[in-house]
Amino acid sequence: MGVQPSPPHLTLPILILISSSLLLVASHDYHDALSKCILFFEGQRSGFLPQDQRQNWRANSGLGDGSTNGIDLTGGYYDAGDNVKFGFPMAFSTTLLAWSVIEFGDSMPSDDLRNTLVAIRWATDYLLKTVSQPNRIFVQVGDPIKDHNCWERPEDMDTDRTVYSVEAPKTASDVAGETAAAFAASSMAFRSSDPGYAETLLRSAIRIFEYADNYKGAYSDNEDVRPGVCPFYCDFDGYQDELLWGAAWLGRASQNQSYRNYIQYNGKTLGADDNINEFGWDNKHAGLNVLVSKEFLEGNVYSLESYKASADSFMCTLIPESSSSHIEYTPGGLIYRPGGSNMQHVTSIAFLLLVYANYLSRTSQTVNCGSISIGPTSLHQQAKKQVDYLLGDNPMSMSYMVGYGDKYPQRLHHRGSSLPSIKDHPEFIPCKDGSVYFNSSSSNPNIHVGAVVGGPGEDDIYEDDRADFRKSEPTTYINAPLVGVLAYFVANPN
């Protein structure tokens, strides 16, 4: 089931007092967590699986995707615990995996860096197929209503693999802009190891951004697409942020001045100053401001100062001691936003904290939050509290990453993990016959190593209930930014 974003309202924080005894907790094994965080993506693969597939409870699936439309759309990722390939969140997850490599790849052990690049390429190879026809973008494969009415392994899928596409002059600025960002960021990630592939990705980014900019509007405003993408990955927050986000990534990857001009001149009209306190698959504002502020901080591009000011403002909202703090925390100290899967906010915000801290430390800058000044160390500490909570330093003494630590979620809201593997039970399990596994109180038979669930409620309680998808469903966009976060702490554990 797709996870809807939480509503934009934020409430006042609960100040967290950290006792000195908590500071003595033994450090986590961030390297182990990083390797597992990347491994998760292998359990989400669609298509023909390679010989070196490590999540070996999975097998080939979706091998006919696109055939009804005369195009090969095999590959890519299932976004969460269902069997639909949603292009919008997949492209965002790809951008964040690539950004993790760009910022923190130097901190990654070589095996983890290689596996992260493999995870990125599994997505970009698929996304290249979705834009292979001129002036057309394939945005989704699978009818989500029919898919969500089944509890079925991806290997057994017999629901409609409906293909949803948008063709010019119909609008898809959001998906096209995010796909351009994914290609541009990934081109930077592959530049040293595969320059030819990097060049292919950059050329595709330039072309698909032109579509986004020429036909402005949301993909979910098209009546032929809307029934398939809404309410799951509807564009709730507008398409304007993806235009700026795509342009910002193209500017960074290509070093072409025209993209910098684009974000400079279109910032006001495209709402760069709006809604800056969120970052996720639907809302790029906070990430955009952090990304662009690098140009101001390290490149002395003074015309982009407003993005730096917005990034500063966002950081101040996250610091409990700041007068402008207005992010809600659980009593145990976890960032909490009401609504959908909460851990997506935790991992993406922790990622931005670390990226911005790096930009500040390289330029010897601080953030002025009214009466207090915040330096990189404070931002690092904020991020560390979040990742340590996720890995087990919480009131439940539970890791929210499957397979990490001694106690972790056993009943994921995830079809492939909760049904017997096709290798153990080769007989076909029809759509409704999976319900007995969904309704079971037994642990999932297949351990989806590295999966991070939506996490506890605002009271820090986690019931480990498969039916409660907001808490028990993993998603690609929870894990993608966490790759970068964990890579940083591998190199800087204290």
From TrEMBL:
Enzyme class, first EC level, given as a word: hydrolase
Superkingdom in the source lineage: Eukaryota
EC number: 3.2.1.4
Keyword check for Zinc-finger: no
Gene3D superfamilies: 1.50.10.10
PROSITE patterns: GH9_2 (PS00592), GH9_3 (PS00698)
Signal sequence range: 1-27
Molecular-function annotations in GO: cellulase activity
Key words of the record: Carbohydrate metabolism, Cellulose degradation, Glycosidase, Hydrolase, Polysaccharide degradation, Signal
Reactions accelerated catalytically: Endohydrolysis of (1->4)-beta-D-glucosidic linkages in cellulose, lichenin and cereal beta-D-glucans
Active site: 413, 464, 473
UniProt record, GO biological process: cellulose catabolic process
InterPro entries in the record: 6-hairpin_glycosidase_sf, 6hp_glycosidase-like_sf, Glyco_hydro_9, Glyco_hydro_9_Asp/Glu_AS, Glyco_hydro_9_His_AS
Location of the Glycoside hydrolase family domain: 30-486
Record family assignment: Belongs to the glycosyl hydrolase 9 (cellulase E) family.
Database matches in PANTHER family: ENDO-1,4-BETA-GLUCANASE
Name the UniProt record assigns to this protein: Endoglucanase
